[in-house]
Amino acid sequence: xxxxxxxxxxxxxxxxxxxxxxxxxxxxxxxxxxxxxxxxxxxxxxxxxxxxxxxxxxxxxxxxxxxxxxxxxxxxxxxxxxxxxxxxxxxxxxxxxxxxxxxxxxxxxxxxxxxxxxxxxxxxxxxxxxxxxxxxxxxxxxxxxxxxxxxxxxxxxxxxxxxxxxxxxxxxxxxxxxxxxxxxxxxxxxxxxxxxxxxxxxxxxxxxxxxxxxxxxxxxxxxxxxxxxxxxxxxxxxxxxxxxxxxxxxxxxxxxxxxxxxxxxxxxxxxxxxxxxxxxxxxxxxxxxxxxxxxxxxxxxx
Length: 302
Known about the structure:
This protein is globular. It is mostly helical.
């Protein structure tokens, strides 16, 4: 990656706008998901369609550009990451389907806490006051957001925390195991791994698809405008501003997602959730700026 000194102001501004745009697009997921659910889809069917459509389009793009998928161990390792992200996505979408989207988003973005704790206790990463303060803020934010009554849906809260844990585990594995390769090639394999995983889940427990044209339009919108478009924008922008800055800007995503849940879906957003969400975002931002964070291909499965 280029050093900050070698990046011109126009390049940095371009990267800044692209990453900000990517975060905004990722934040649109609750809107498309809500529309698909209204048309009869369930989380399994929606995610299977999302990953399959996105992976298919990426494979066509790679074929047009004459880019090859990795082989052997790199392929298997990247595919395994895709399985992890599919499981995390399933937890997140199940949580947002059964409890409030706002609470699911807040809990999902506590994933840097799991990454940091694992790094400290198992990878022997050095800690400091910034990390410890971030962990305390995030923990307080989660407790405040849930209100300890879980809004009558303990299952949804557990799904959201499971998603955060799975997402953090996939990030850790990808950071330490993924070999150097094109981010878009890696993203294609991850999407394919997610599609295969969700197909197996669908075979085991069934999947409900959208029953209307509008529902399929929302599903296509999820695959295009909340998956592939932000992925391309993040890939194009993050090298110009650096991983830490890109991760910090990505904190716009939960703000957009919660805003959509309140303004367009009509969810009630309590003051406790507001303050709890703010603490989680602040903690995640602090952790993002102090440690290595997800690469472009690791952002697709939220």
